[in-house]
Amino acid sequence: MKEEEDDFYIGYLDTVSPKTKKGIKSFVLFGILLLVGGALLFALTQNTFKNSTFELTTNTKITGVYHEMPYPMLRVQTDENVYKNILLLGFGKSSANPFLQKIRNEAGPLSGSVLRIEGNLIYYNGKTLIQITSDEKISLIEKANPSRLPKTEPLVSGMELKGEIIDPKCYFGVMKPGKGKIHRSCATLCISGGIPPVLATTDKNNIAEYYLLTDTEGNPINEQILPYIGKPSILTGNVVKIQDWYQLRIKTEDIQDLDLPSKIY
Question: In this structure, are residues 112 and 144 in contact, taking their beta carbons and an 8 Å threshold?
């Protein structure tokens, strides 16, 4: 019986044997199928981006009552007896405070004042923030009157919540994604720069909820919260409501880190 001869390919010759041609075609076809299959698998396993918005190129003017409870906000009337509290942020990884200093020096304490602010809106899931890019874009309309301040409503004591501590500027629109391990270093810089920390969580019906974090007396916490940012955690504290925002008053030393991945909406 005649033995099958080995196919020997010589690169400098123009002719290729049928066996070599068949092998090359099979290899190329397999490579294409592998590439297309891998691309489809990668696309199907990715999380979709949130429908958050950051109006970087659009300047919007808003007028409302300024307050610090404890983070800078502007209380804006949207309808009869309906108000939205817009969280004020500075440019980059900064709080609004450096941009408010000039008008504080001129007008004194601002809580209860009516201010007009021009900046870039950020919004998602019913929450609105505004980025202030210059202290020249803040105007005093009416001087401070404490009767204009929103009321703080105590809700629940000792409430336990599971979620992730995020920086609201990136999470609500500036970065996609703005949460999780991939965003932890950026969020740490934002919160250490004075941007308020927020707990992103969901209720028993899987509806997203957000809590501004403070200490037990309702004062700002920034440096104390840094070790826990971007991690799934359990927080326990007292919940108060300031119109359309919840506030969770906690002891940072009581935060429990979790290794399980958290699902944030």
Answer: yes
Spans of all domains in the chain: 53-148, 153-257
Mean pLDDT of 215-235: 94
Q: Tell me how far apart the alpha carbons of residues 195 and 193 are, in angstroms, rounded to a whole number.
A: 6
pTM value? Answer: 0.78
53-148 has which CATH code? 2.40.50
Contact 65, 114 (CB under 8 A): yes
Instruction: Tell me whether the CATH fold assigned to 53-148 matches the one assigned to 153-257.
Output: yes
Q: What is the SS3 assignment for the chain? A: CCCCCCCCCCCCCCCCCHHHHHHHHHHHHHHHHHHHHHHHHHHHCCCCCCCCEECCCCCEEEEEEEEECCCEEEEEEEECCEEEEEEEEECCCCECHHHHHHHHHHHCCCCCCEEEEEEEEEEECCEEEEEECCHHHEEEEECCCHHHCCCCEEEEEEEEEEEEEECHHHHHHHCCCCCCHHHHHHHHHHHHCCCCCEEEEECCCCCEEEEEEECCCCCECCHHHHHHECCEEEEEEEEEEECCEEEEEECHHHCEECCCCCCCC
Please determine, looking at this structure, whether the domain spanning 153-257 carries the CATH number 2.60.40.
no
Give yes or no for residue 263 having a pLDDT over 90. no
d(CA 153, CA 78): 20
